[in-house]
Specification:
The protein has ten helices and 13 strands. It is an alpha/beta fold.
Length: about 325
Amino acid sequence: MSSTPFTPGPLDRTSTTYVAGHRGMVGSAVWRRLEAAGFVDLVGRGSAELDLRERAAVFDFLAETRPRYVVLAAAKVGGILANDSHPVEFLSDNLRIQTNVMDAALEQRVERLLFLGSSCIYPRLAPQPIREDSLLTGHLEPTNDAYAIAKIAGILGVQAVRREYGLPWISAMPTNLYGPGDNFSPTGSHLLPALVRRYHEAAAAGAPYVTNWGTGTPRRELLHVDDMAAACLHLLEHYDAPGQVNVGTGRDATIKEIAELVAAAVGYEGETRWDSSKPDGMPRKLLDVSLLHSLGWTEQTSLADGIAATVRWYRDHADHLREVG
């Protein structure tokens, strides 16, 4: 175990930095943010080049590149339907990805690693807004419990490395993210991209109504992915403790209100209907971000502006959208 105390500060922009999952929505945003901040030796591999579920390949890759910093943004992700339908894959794939990258990073004694999880790690009925110390205090939301368990294991993995080896690794738990590079699959997407696609297609077809899942009453907090990426760099340079840090806005809206913002951004003027036979998911999932704010970071993108920008991006990239699940 290291006996030298670690003090957070500016990262060396010339050191090798590996962004795991750099072609996904979160990883690509982190890559853009690091590039903009002056990092000159960024390393990434697509899944066709490096399958992070393959342990030997991951160890070989990190032994070859020997990064000083790692942002672990790679994950198998999806919305309610995908999580509920494929719990084996969400548990197995994510456990293997996280464990392989962390173990290989430990072998190389990576100085600084940031593990990115999800707010679904918290109990379904956790007191709102959800504080970091709500972790493991109640039952998970059953529609995404497999994914949540994998992410909880990642947090504990970071804490175990800190405890046994003294490396200053950290974890961040973002709220619901959206923005450029999102997964717009009709069956595998999260809330915001699913709404953007649904309303865009309805507007293009002149459909008289759009039907959304659930009742529209659950509340969701949304954070633009570029803000999340900025928070990642801020945490790497300003935070060092075992506990995960919530990353969000500290404000939420009903799914109905979010759908109305999407409809307005798309220009859809038809009716919105709600199918209450479909699951709502967690009734509310608002993060307490007081720790993040105390570290000197707040988001820059309003929800209305972020949704409008996402709609524009979606239309500009309609011919080559990422669709998984």
